[in-house]
Amino acid sequence: MAKNIYETLLILDSNKYAQDPSGVAGALSDMVETIEGTVLASRVWMEQKLAYPIQRQQKGTYWLLYFEADGKRLVELNRAFQLHEGILRTMTLRLDPRLVEPMLANARGEYTPSSDGDEGGDGAAPEGAQEDVEANTEASTV
Q1: Fewer CB atoms inside 10 Å of the end CB: C or N, the chain?
Q2: Which residue from 28, 13, 96, 125 is spatially nearest to 58, judged by alpha carbons?
Q3: Is the separation of the CB atoms in 80 and 28 below 8 Å?
Q4: pLDDT tens by residue, 10-44
Q5: What pLDDT band is residue 137 in, cutting at 50, 70 and 90?
Q6: CA distance 7 to 2
Q7: H helix or E strand, kind and range, residue 138
Q8: How do beta strands 87-94 and 57-70 pair?
């Protein structure tokens, strides 16, 4: 069977996540493994106030989960997400094969070269860029 790569954004109950962060992460991995999937990356994205209350919660922890699985088994996974008491909302998307590597590298915190061919990766401006900025600053202050 052909397996696809999926990205799931989950909104977790912040209180339950704060009580047992590793337990929630383990439960998400277990749910994916139950449908014979493979977790590729799993991490906290952010915590913030919700736009509107969900199950009387004002704040949520956003979690990104990347996994490989058979698309026919997603119904089971979504049902497991709905039944888990620590999950408020979910959204699952199939990733385009061209985007898989950059998205996974970003989720893992790895460097990916930009499309303009800059292989430096140190975040520094290209040679001559600082002089151009200084010249433009001097010209605008005159």
Answers
A1: C
A2: 13
A3: no
A4: 999 888 888 888 888 889 999 999 999 999 988 88
A5: very low
A6: 17
A7: helix 129-141
A8: unpaired
Type of residue numbered 2:
A
Domains contained in the chain, CATH given: 3-108 (3.30.70.60)
State whether the Cα torsion 75-87-23-7 is positive or negative: positive
pLDDT of residue 22: 85
Half-sphere exposure of 121 (CA within 13 A, CB side): 6
Structure tokens at 115: 């499309």
- Nearest to residue 9, comparing CAs of 96, 87, 69, 102? 87
Instruction: Say how far apart CA 110 and CA 4 lie, in whole Å.
Output: 22
